[in-house]
Amino acid sequence: QVQLVESGGGSVQAGGSLRLSCAASVFDFSIYTVGWYLQAPGKQRELVAIIRTSGDTNYADSVKGRFTISRDNSKKMVYLQMNSLKPEDTAVYYCNAARIRYGSWVNYWGQGTQVTVSS
Fold it and tell me: Which of 18, 20, 48, 118 is the 20 to 30 Å CA partner of 71?
């Protein structure tokens, strides 16, 4: 079983920065695609950024140039550096780990961490 624990959320003024961290408890962390998703009140969960086992990354258009995702396989950690934060970035941010198992993607989620950006 995979356990993911996020940290680093909080409140910040617009233009500020936060760094989210996600600690994974899993034997073979390096084979997982990992990422960050956000969910704003009343809205569906949506992708922020992912980083594949190859190191390739993808970002939502809304965060390109502002957010950077990284991973440290030796520490089983995933990070999201968030700069130039905007009020519309306010949401609960979830860490995700995914892998293909028996031909289908299997997803694991953390409990989420709140990010609040004030204007």
Answer: 118
